[in-house]
TrEMBL record:
Keywords: Ion channel, Ion transport, Membrane, Mitochondrion, Mitochondrion inner membrane, Oxidation, Repeat, Transmembrane, Transmembrane helix, Transport. It is found in: Membrane; Mitochondrion inner membrane. This is Mitochondrial brown fat uncoupling protein 1. It comes from the Eukaryota. May undergo ubiquitin-mediated proteasomal degradation. Belongs to the mitochondrial carrier (TC 2.A.29) family. InterPro entries: MCP (IPR002067), MCP_dom_sf (IPR023395), MCP_transmembrane (IPR018108), Mito_Metabolite_Transporter (IPR050391). Mitochondrial protein responsible for thermogenic respiration, a specialized capacity of brown adipose tissue and beige fat that participates in non-shivering adaptive thermogenesis to temperature and diet variations and more generally to the regulation of energy balance. Functions as a long-chain fatty acid/LCFA and proton symporter, simultaneously transporting one LCFA and one proton through the inner mitochondrial membrane. However, LCFAs remaining associated with the transporter via their hydrophobic tails, it results in an apparent transport of protons activated by LCFAs.
Amino acid sequence: MVGPTASDPPPTMAVKIFSAGVAACVADVIAFPLDTAKVRLQVIQGERQTSSALRYNGILGTITTLAKTEGPMKLYSGLPAASLGSKVSAGLTTGGVAVFIGQPTEVMKVRLQAQSHLHGPKPRYTGTYNAYRITATTEGWTGLWKGTTLNLTRNVIINCTELVTHDLMKEALVKNQLLADDVPCHFVPAVIARFCATVLSSPVDMVKTTFVNSPPGQYTSVPNCATTMLTKEGPSAFFKGFVPSFLRLGSWHVIMFVCFEQLKRELMKSTQTMDCAT
């Protein structure tokens, strides 16, 4: 991969926004099966159904079994919901506002990923818009924003942990002359930061997935959901799906930033070529 040179034109704001949007979509398409595997391991195993526990064995086992028993497209169940709303809201807003606007898409994504054709004759929802309609009808509009506080907490933990860990690790590597300030020096701290973020956010992520996917009335509150999980399954319940969560988080960022940098460079070169031609 060729790095930037002094002759490369600086990217415009429009090129940055377009490149970031395309790169995020590419990363979603590639990494989404890991997210589906994470949710399925969290939810299905949490239901303590013996057949499911035997059926899903590890990351590759979960992905392979889903593709064989429910079809390859099941790995992308919930992708339209995730891409349609969350990317737009995240691009237009920041922080808590983005989480609040995008929460309905998160709820639909989790529920579509978690539902299994193996647990009954009919799936819970037939598609993204059907999921929105049924949720709004049976649970009211508040059902679309179920687990908003948990999702906000998870995002805060991930963002703060990644930023602090990445900066500290990069500074230590450069200061102690272990690595030069180039691609390897950017990659190593990024992986460590993703791991730390996954460790700290996993309990909140697990409670979020369980609470969001639960039918009305199963849990009286978020603390009740967490307490029930701890009582029934022990502390390990909060770290189900840890490996696919880490791989998904790490791979998404790597793919996204690699595509982002390459798209920016190629678009600016194309723009420069067209300017010269005219």
